[in-house]
UniProtKB/TrEMBL annotation:
Pfam families: 4HBT. Gene3D superfamilies: Hotdog Thioesterase. The keyword Hydrolase applies. It comes from the Bacteria. Belongs to the thioesterase PaaI family. NCBIfam families: unchar_dom_1. This is Hotdog fold thioesterase. Residues 52-129 form the Thioesterase domain. Keywords: Hydrolase.
Amino acid sequence: MGLWKRALTPEAFAGTHAATLPGLLGIRLEEVGEDFARASMPVDERHIQPAGILHGGCSVVLAETLGSTCGVMALEDGWTVVGLEVNANHLAPVFKGDRAEAICRPLQLGRTVQVWQIEIRRGDGTLTCVSRLTTVVRQGRGR
């Protein structure tokens, strides 16, 4: 399982988020590798700003959702994470009809704080957003 302490299937992810913002935006967990996780999100009417491109807030939701999911998977049962800070640099547009794909990897996995790097690319592979999520580790119910 690599760095992961808990397994999560795409089906379980979908069930957890069905009635929440990630579910409403169509975010899907696509793959969990040894030291990364990958998720995707369509870009349709729900996701665009008036200029017809992906709204930056949707990129942040994708990044924070994937980073938080990774944070929980990296912990033993009985522990969870809460977002402390998220930032995003929007580098290129994603157009309506495309799909955004995010890859998340850890930068720091401490006992009390985790830092995750998330890169988002559009369908042609262009890097469109770089995000960093800092989470606080705490006892609580896991996913």
